[in-house]
Every structure is written in structure tokens, then in C-alpha cells.
Amino acid sequence: MTLHIPVMLEEVIDYLNIIPEGIYIDATVGTGGHSKEILKRLEGRGLLIGFDRDSESIEIAENVLKKLGSKFILINKAFNEIPNVLGMLNIRKVDGILYDLGMSSFQLEESKRGFSFKNLDEPLDMRFSIDEKLKASDILNSYSQRALERIFFEYGEEPFSKKVAKLIVEERKKKPFSKVGDLVSLIEKNIPRRKIHPATRIFQALRIVVNNELEILEDSLKSIIPFLKEGARIVILTYHSLEDRIVKNFFKNSEKDGKIKIITKKILKPSKEEVERNPRARSAKMRVGEKVGSS
Q1: How would DSSP label each residue in 19-82?
Q2: Residues 98 and 219 in one domain
Q3: What is the phi/psi pair of residue 49, to 5°?
Q4: Which of 164, 228, 237, 273 has the fewest CB within 10 Å, making it most exposed?
Q5: Residue where a domain stops, chosen among 211, 243, 272
Q6: At what angle do helices 9-16 and 33-42 cross, to 10 degrees?
Q7: 290: which DSSP letter?
Q8: What is the pLDDT, as a whole number, of residue 229?
Q9: Would residue 1 count as lying in a domain?
Q10: Which of 42, 71, 73, 56 is nearest to 1 (CA)?
Q11: From CA 266, how far away is CA 227, in angstroms rounded?
């Protein structure tokens, strides 16, 4: 199994300002890349709490992290559940939190849930949690043409959203969409080539809707500030303009309200060397804020 290469690892660790006795949250633990380095710096004295909706990722992360012999708790829930979980653990405040909103290598390459348009035989599933009901194939086979067009335009910023929606509705009358290849073939035949694969934005849009990603992100950011200690850092890695806009507005409004001080006045991006080593890092943007005051 190929473990996920953590994006902007040095920058994440540096900006979290980790203290060994602290309590830290990895809101998107994935297969444990960032968490592993956080735990090392806690030196067995602090606590890491990791969240992920993907039960398979949680299982992999546990096997990676338990080798360090440090204290950690992994929670198989979405990160908008952080306040509830902290309440159950009787933890009032934490010293820092990381959100890495990218897909892991495991999900893309080995989960067999159709996240990548390269794995043509995989089912059009795209669920982070297999306990959820809605799959990408359900959207493609049952949503109206207008609804599909809106999804592709709003969540994928796809310029050919109207054309793709029309083609999908026509195609599903002949045969329902079930495999990744069914959708990729339709797009490749009808959408012109460009810098990115023509299916990239359609897959992004479907994944966002299946997992309710933007709403969960907004919910989490709205509720997290009261659980940060004074001086605690919040580090967020985004990978497309929709989620980055939410994060940018969150920091801007929180600073205006006197709750957060923005540490990164300009977004941070991975170095050219990192992108060469790990091409999936190329679209990453990092924003960092620091809690102001104790309330």
C-alpha cells in the first residue's frame, strides 16, 4: 500500500507551533502523514485527536501511529463533529488544529470507490464514509438535467456544464452509469482537451455533493474558535477555489471580529521542489490564523 505523502509538511509543523504538553487536532487524519509528525513533537506528553469520515483510512492511520508509542485518539466522524467529541472527552480547549482538505493517495488509488477518473473499472461511488447512502451513480442516474447542470457549474466551475448534463441524461436512457469508465468515456468524447483532464471538474463536483463537503467545512469553521486556547494556531490546506474562498472569508471575518489574527497575509504554496516530488501538492494553498483572547 502506498501511504499518502503529506503536503507542505514542514510548513504545517512550523506554523502549528507545537508544544510537547499540548492537545492538537488533525481534522482530516487520512493515513496519518501529518499526524505522525505532530505526535513525534508531542514526545509522549501531549495528545493528538484525529478525525476522518473514512473508516478504512482511520484503520491505516492507527497502524501507522501506534508504532510511535504516543497518546492519540482517532475518531471516525466528520470534522464538524469536533465540538461534540471534545465535549464527550471533557476537553474544553486545544492548542492547535490542522485541516488538510485534500484527497489521500489511498482514497484515490486503493479505496476502489471511484474517486479518480483513471481507475475506469471502479464503481461511481465517491463516498468518504460507506455508511452514507448517496453515491455518485445515484446523482448521475436520477437527478434532473437542470440539477446536474447546477452541480457541475457551482461545484466544479465547469464551463461545459450544460452540455455535459444534457449528454448524461441522454446516455442514461440507454444504459445507467455504474463505472468510472462510463462517465469518463462520455466526457472525453464530447469535451475538448485542456490543461487538466476534461473529467477533473465533473469528478470534483460529484465528490463535493456526495460528501456535502462545503457545508461541513463551513459548519466546522463556525464552531471551532471557542475551542481554541489563546495563541492556538489553526492551519488549513485547500485545493480548489471553492473551499479556499470559504477559508479566506472565515479568517477575514474572524479577524474583523477580533477572534483571530491572520498569520499568513498572503497564501502559502508548496515549493517547486515539493511539487516535483509530489505533483498532487501543486494546487495546495495554506492559510494560518492564531486565536486572539481567551474567550
Answers
A1: -TT-EEEETT-TTSHHHHHHHHHHTTTSEEEEE-S-HHHHHHHHHHHGGGT--EEEE-S-GGGH
A2: yes
A3: -115, 120
A4: 273
A5: 211
A6: 40
A7: E
A8: 97
A9: no
A10: 56
A11: 25
Q: pLDDT tens-digit profile of 56-71?
A: 999 999 999 998 877 9
Nearest Cα neighbor of 16 from 100, 95, 102, 101 is 95
Q: Which of 240, 125, 255 is nearest to 179 (CA)?
A: 125
Q: Can you give the CATH number for the domain in which 39 is found?
A: 3.40.50.150
Q: What is the mean pLDDT of residues 271-282?
A: 92
**C-alpha grid cell, residue 89:** 472527552
Do 205 and 220 lie in a common domain?
A: no
Number of domains in the chain: 2
Please tell me which of 47-56, 62-71, 114-123, 286-295 the model is most confident about, judged by mean pLDDT. Answer: 47-56
CA 151 to chain centre: 18
Confidence of residue 2 (pLDDT cuts 50, 70, 90): low
Q: Using an 8 Å Cβ cutoff, are 259 and 225 in contact? A: yes
Q: Where are the alpha helices (DSSP H) in 157-224?
A: 161-174, 180-190, 200-211, 213-224
- Same domain, residue pair 17 and 60: yes
**pLDDT, tens digit, 9 for 90 and up, residues 143-197:** 999 999 999 999 999 999 999 999 999 999 999 999 999 999 999 999 988 888 9
For residue 38, the enclosing domain spans 9-107+213-291
